[in-house]
Amino acid sequence: MYAPSGQMTAAKPPVGENEIVLRTGEFPTTVVVGKGLLFRISDFTGKTEAPFVVADEITGPLFADFLEQRKGLFTLPRGEEGKSLPRVSAIYSALAKSQVDRSGIILALGGGVVGDAAGFAAATWMRGIRLLQCPTTLLAQVDSAIGGKTGVNLPEGKNLVGAFHPAEWVFSDVECLRSQEEEDFRQGLAEAVKYGIGENWNFLSWLEENAGPILRRECCVLLRLVSECSRMKLAVVSEDEREQSGSRARLNLGHTVGHALEAVSGYKRWKHGDAVAAGMMVAARLAARLGELGEEECLRIGRILSRFSLPTGPDRPWEDILPFLARDKKFTGGVPSLVIPRKNTSCTLRSDIPLPLLRETYEESL
Ligand code: GLY
Question: 248 catalytic, yes or no?
Fold first, then answer.
């Protein structure tokens, strides 16, 4: 379970100690990675209006009191249930009650669900107000809190309603990760491996060399892990914020098969990172068949996933996942668009891969 460690209650360290401040190009978000950040946000933002905090049942009681000030607190239920239009409507009512106007700020304190729902409320309340993200899970720190994607699920499907609304600041406090449940921490590790295979193979080597300290959640490696992933995510989204040029699509490595596995299990048995790990293994084997990766890279990918206790293949027959694959936004005219890793360079989006080849590779990965 989450629990604040002793360090979070320690005296304020001076600004600049043990923290990394990242900003890229024109992208409007500054990411701060550090420890003990939650209780000194104004050291970075300057004197500003007290934010309205959106948290969940765990992060509210654990972390909200570390924040210097707040205008109100709204608590979402845990899990995907928190990411719905009725919940966002309840956030709007709480914002009205707390008299949050166009100069107001929403602060999202939690994992991906909180970030998405609170971010969507910020994008739409009074046609858009300022947003701060304080991601408390590894998955949110390395991926979902950065890049401006916000949204909610509908009964008809996941993330069908949303908006791009980048946070002004993302405060990633690695102290929050030290007591995250192992299963949840692992989901973020899958996204970290994705940056290694998809963006920078040197980073994959760093993950391999530091797997032990990462799994022990040593503070200095967590700082490096989160800051390197944040740097790569910022670089990609600043190149292609709206996912138009194809650069941002690279972040979907492993996600086409991964989303299908999540969907076929009713978003229960397969968690996001686990499903992406299985999907990355299929993508790696496909890359080997296309001559983009060698057998050695496939083995390497399998080894690091196993080291992080992540799955190395799917468990559902092809026939079960095909209907969900076909619903993928990137599946046109019966041909999938798939992100394919390449040796020693960044991955690439390809739309020339015949479905039978994907099927054969998927079945070989079972
Ligand atoms: N998580 C993928 C993206 O932000 O585009």
Answer: yes
